[in-house]
Design goal:
Layout (H helix, E strand, L loop, with lengths): L2 H15 L10 E6 L2 E6 L9 E11 L5 E2 L2 E2 L5 E5 L5 E6 L9 E9 L11 E5 L9 E5 L3 E3 L6 H5 L2 H14 L7 E5 L5 H11 L3 E6 L4 H6 L4 E4 L12 E6 L6 H6 L1 E9 L5 H10 L2 E4 L7 H13 L7 E6 L3 H8 L7 E5 L2
Parallel strand pairs: 12-13, 12-15, 13-14, 15-16, 16-17, 18-19
Antiparallel strand pairs: 1-2, 3-8, 3-10, 3-19, 4-5, 6-7, 8-9, 9-11
Length: 348
Amino acid sequence: MSIRALSLSLLSAFLGALSLPAAEPAPRAAVLTGNSLQVQTIAVREPGEGEVLIRVRAAGVNASDWRSPGTAVTAARSAMLQGADGSVGLAVPVNGPAVPGFDAAGVVAAIGPGVSAFRPGDEVIAFSAREGAYGTHLVVSAASVAPKPRNITFEEAAAVPTKAVVAWTLLMDVAEVSGGQRVLVLLGDGPLGYQAVQLARARGAAVTAMGPARTRSYLFAVGATEFVDSAGGAFESELEAFDIVFNAAGPALTARAIRTTKRDGIVLVAETPDAASIAAASAAGVRLGAWPETGTSAGQILRQFVGMIDRNQVDVNIERIFPLAEVNEAWAFARQPGTRGHVVIEMP
């Protein structure tokens, strides 16, 4: 072999040994078109005043993704009106692609003017009430962003925001749960009830959890002091009245929850109560607390919740992770009765 040929061979081997970074894929998102989601290439805008751009690594799936409070998801994405301070209000349509999703975990890619709490490269979680999280890139108010928990994965972190914000707002801001109180959590399907159990227990309350028999061991593991099988029948006539009832099982159980609450106690619901529930609560001398209500900003809630995760006070249970290309399958799976843990979409 000639010297020139040998030199070219060595150069080729050297270049081949270099670890070159993979090209960043084009920005993509799951866009609602008709009755299904399609993954499409999207434009990514620069973050504005008080905003951050996140390169999303994973997005959490919630029932609110296909129905905002009181509003069906339509071709114009329905989202919750979000103030500059991260507070959350009523559902309103937002212009732009109909990209679902409120929960994201990823890495800060850029910051807008006026942002000092974050810098590019920071690992974060976000509750996005304006733009959909089912995509590789997300621009969101810095007031709704918090550092990612240190001891969990991006996929686990993406499951946190909505459940944390809802459970915290209802239990801490609305009910002001405290030690010595008796709390009943009606689980239903999905993980919101698990977060409520852990938060109430962390505040020193005695927590009774009602759910399917298969959830018994897990609920005791995360802090429940008593368990009631939801298949057992008329629980409201068998249980002593509670100071707080957290109804994560949906409107069908609100009337029964009211009958299980002490006079001057409170029933917490994750949706706007109907007129019949309001009247029943009033007649029973029971308060109704519904989400969303004005309270602590999303970013502040997430920071406190992250601290609890880092101190191993809150467990995040993942049921299944889907790639972005299988987003429709993720929705179908999440909507099945009996889904216990969080469902997450992993971004390319």
